[in-house]
Specification:
single chain, 89 residues, two-stranded parallel ribbon, two-stranded antiparallel sheet
């Protein structure tokens, strides 16, 4: 299966449901290539995350992805992040 940002129309709960379906299909020997920004989808066990940039392609862990870092920072420091975002508005 090739999926291009399947999370775009999915809530976090639905993304987790998608992970369940992906896992069922993997158990039946299916393979996936998924273009995503979703830390939830990138968390699939044993997945390989490729980061594509102007400098080339590199393998990253989930915790090294920009979306994971930003989401974690926001959730762990919501008030500080909102203050920073709204500072000069």
């Amino acid at each position: 299966y090739i999926l291009d940002e399947p999370e775009a129309a999915l809530s976090p709960l639905r993304q987790m449901s998608l992970l369940t379906r992906i896992h069922e299909l993997v158990q039946e020997n299916s393979q996936f290539i998924i273009s995503t920004h979703s830390p939830i989808l990138m968390a699939y066990p044993d997945s390989i995350i490729y980061h594509l940039s102007a400098d080339g392609i590199e393998v990253r862990t989930l915790e090294e992805t920009d979306h994971y870092i930003i989401m974690k920072e926001f959730l762990n420091n919501k008030d500080r992040m909102l203050d920073e975002l709204f500072r000069d508005i």
